[in-house]
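Quick review question:
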């Protein structure tokens, strides 16, 4: 998959139960929301509600972290390959 900025991203389930299709869908919808300017804050990134998930990208100061989507005990992360 690709991010809203067009970078390739590998989606991984970090904790809890989620299937691959659901994980890809939530990030597809999250990146679409970012692309449409639906994220709060000056830099965008969230938090953004996607159904029963909450997604957020790290701040510039936390660039060593990955964007994540959380639902209860389940966390899904996007590992972005910057080119």
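Suggested answer, residue by residue:
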């Amino acid at each position: 998959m690709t991010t809203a900025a067009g970078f390739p991203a590998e989606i991984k389930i970090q904790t809890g139960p989620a299937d691959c299709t659901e994980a890809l869908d939530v990030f597809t919808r999250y990146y679409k929301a970012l692309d449409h300017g639906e994220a709060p804050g000056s830099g965008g990134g969230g938090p953004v509600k996607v159904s029963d998930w909450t997604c957020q990208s790290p701040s510039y100061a936390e660039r060593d972290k990955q964007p994540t989507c959380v639902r209860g005990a389940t966390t899904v992360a996007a590992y972005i390959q910057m080119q």
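Why it works: The radius of gyration is 12 Å. The chain has a mean pLDDT of 86.
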